[in-house]
Amino acid sequence: MLSGYHRLKLLYWDSINPNPMNKSDNSRRNFLKLTAAGLAGAALIKSETAQAASFKKADVIYRTLGRTGVKLPIVSMGAMRGDTKALIEAGIKRGIVHFDTAHVYQKGKNEEMLGEIFQNYDRNQFFIATKVVPDDMDRKTGEIGSGFTVEKFMEYLDTSLKRLQMDQVDLLYAHAVSSGKAVLHPELIKALKLAKEQGKCKFLGVSTHKNEPEVIKAAVEAGIYDVVLTAYNFKQDHRDELTQTIADAAAKGIGFVAMKTMAGGFLDEEHTKPVNTKAALKWALQNENICTAIPGFTAFEHLDESFSVMEKLKMSKQEEKDLEFAREYAGLYCNQCSVCAGQCKKGLPIPEIMRSYMYTYGYRDMNQAKTLLADMGVKNDPCSDCDSCTVSCVKNFAVADKIKKVSRLVDVPDEFIS
Ligand code: SF4
Ligand code: SF4
Fold first, then answer.
1. Which pTM value belongs to this model?
2. pLDDT at 44
């Protein structure tokens, strides 16, 4: 009889090893063996908690990540805001196998934290993704300039691998790409191919928060990308177009991972109106072309809540109503639709500042917000000498007010934030 450890290992290898003979999508597996008996018997984890034990009956849905052939549970973990080891380890205990980080998260500390954690586990049992932002990428136009070099990109990747204490990541993304031109940029393609040839990653991908349909179409055209990590949620005004583009690309073998599924997490700055995050996650995962989602957990109860989605994706009437309410409420989430781009008299990058605003007031992630503001060269109170605002937002955001609030971050010393 197989021990828990060996059952786990067999199931895991079956799920992550690319095997063209084994492509049954959306297969439901009895995860009881994997998470409970498997993990408990595995000595994979140091101790089992009462909370983890509550998932013993979970019947987890697995999906295949496009042409990679890798099968993953539909809930994974965005490590960006999981700044404590305990939270990441709690995710591992609950059976999460895919962890997503990036070179820029927490100025490298996020990768370092994951690197330390995975020293205590069998690396082969996890699917780790990291991301590198291409140098000299204009956040406003999304285009990559002449300052991009293959060498610099590889240097960032090497730093990431060192922090992660790994020779190879499973998935390497070109990060935060927002134009088709950038996706197809010959030097970026050269760098990504080189990373794969050198065995520094198994698969290649591109991540996008903006102009997602254009980026996805270019990823198909480029032919080198296996996966797209895309913003995808119930509040996006262009969700129908995006859903169709995802379907078209999935038919051509692209695997999809969803982010920003919580659409900001809250509808108000005071956090009195939370988005029904379980319903929001269900909405994204009801699209069977989405292999897995990477919610950014910050608390143990978020993990439990999201994991419960694994058992049942069907929405209750109340959940449908909650999403309908949240959809109509302007809230904190900027669509990144770029309709306002170019409207500011002073040329401010409004969509990016609004994304920083969402990171700050929705996710309470000041670090990420400040980094984005700094990248964009935004100063404190940049609207102070402007007599009237010419920016019109499709969600009727009072853009100038939000800029005034969030731009204060740029003068806050890092030691108070990170
Ligand atoms: S108020 Fe601010 S956002 Fe509006 S036009 Fe002036 S500088 Fe631009
Ligand atoms: S601020 Fe408004 S118009 Fe501009 S990108 Fe965001 S949602 Fe679109």
1. 0.83
2. 37
Of the residues 373, 385, 386, which should be mutated to test ligand 1's pocket, given the most ligand atoms within 8 Å of the CB?
386
pLDDT of 380 reads 96
Q: What is the pLDDT of residue 246?
A: 98
Taking CA atoms only, the protein residue closest to ligand 2 atom 4 is 340
**Topology of the domain comprising 56-322:** TIM Barrel (3.20.20)
Series of mean pLDDT values for 10-residue runs along the chain (418 residues): 34 37 36 33 35 47 96 92 81 92 91 96 95 89 92 98 98 96 97 98 96 97 98 95 98 97 91 93 97 85 80 91 94 89 93 93 88 91 95 93 96 84
How far is ligand 1, taken at its centre, from the CA of residue 391, in Å? 7
Q: What is the pLDDT of residue 11?
A: 39
Query: Which of 235, 335, 343, 399 for a ligand 2 pocket mutation test, highest count of atoms within 8 Å of Cβ?
Result: 335
3-state SS string for the chain: CCCHHHHHHHHHHHHHCCCCCCCCCCCECCHHHHHHHHHHHHCCCCCCCHHHHCCCCCCCEEEECHHHCCEEECECEEHHHCCCHHHHHHHHHCCCCEEECCCCHHHHHHHHHHHHHHCCCCHHHCEEEEEECCCCECCCCCCECCCCCHHHHHHHHHHHHHHHCCCCEEEEEECCCCCHHHHCCHHHHHHHHHHHHCCCEEEEEEEECCCHHHHHHHHHHHCCCCEEEEECCCCCCCHHHHHHHHHHHHHCCCEEEEECCCCCCECCCCCCCECCHHHHHHHHHCCCCEEEECCCCCCHHHHHHHHHHCCCCCCCHHHHHHHHHHHHCCCCCCCCCCCCCCCCCCCCCHHHHHHHHHHHHHCCCHHHHHHHHHHCCCCCCCCCCCCCCCCCCCCCCCHHHHHHHHHHHHHCCHHHCC
Residue 147, sorted as left (phi over 0), alpha (psi -120 to 50) or beta, turns out to be alpha
What is the CA(411)–ligand 1 centre distance, in A?
A: 20
Which atom from ligand 1 is nearest to the alpha carbon of 347?
Answer: 8
> What pLDDT does 308 receive?
82
For the chain, which residues make up each domain, given as ranges? 4-40, 56-322, 350-416
Q: Which of 373, 383, 385, 401 to mutate to test the pocket of ligand 1 (most atoms within 8 A of CB)?
A: 383
C-alpha of residue 406 to centroid of ligand 1, in Å: 14
